[in-house]
Write a structure and sequence with these properties.
- The chain is mainly alpha-helical and about 140 residues long.
- The protein folds into two domains: about 80 residues, no CATH class; about 35 residues, no CATH class.
- The protein contains ten helices and no strands.
- The radius of gyration is 23 Å and the shape is elongated.
């Protein structure tokens, strides 16, 4: 029973991807949830809010839905599709910056992530090379 439910959920996610919801809200203005009941179950409200919060003209709408997160998916989707003006909105997904020398600073000084990030901003390239040479024990990596 659980396996069948998981498979059905995976099918719903595969049928309606994030781009379908975002295109219908931002550009097409075709209501996916009126056409298909399965679209209601596969709607990801948190991710839609996160994507829409990256634009100046939709950030307040996303904030409003964050405050009204208790509403069901169809109501949130209907709010977005009827409130947001039609416009092409494309942006890359926000990713966490990776700091390559962070691990070196953490190991050398024994700092936590936050302290190492602060120290990394203060260290020069020569100091980082010195730290790397001190921590390099040779052999295969």
């Amino acid at each position: 029973m659980i396996r069948k439910t998981v498979l059905n959920f995976c099918y719903l996610i595969m049928k309606y991807e994030l781009k379908h919801y975002l295109n219908s809200i931002n550009y097409d203005k075709v209501n996916l949830m009126d056409a298909d009941e399965e679209a209601v179950n596969a709607y990801p409200p948190y991710i839609i809010n996160r994507c829409l919060s990256g634009f100046m003209d939709t950030v307040l709408y996303a904030n409003e839905m964050n405050m009204a997160s208790h509403l069901d998916s169809k109501m949130q989707y209907d709010f977005f599709i009827n409130s947001i003006r039609k416009r092409k909105r494309f942006s890359p997904w926000l990713k966490k910056d990776s700091l390559k020398d962070l691990e070196l600073v953490k190991r050398y000084y024994g700092y936590s992530n936050e302290k190492a990030k602060t120290a990394l901003g203060l260290l020069t390239k020569e100091q980082l090379k010195f730290i790397e040479s001190k921590l390099n024990v040779g052999g295969k990596k």
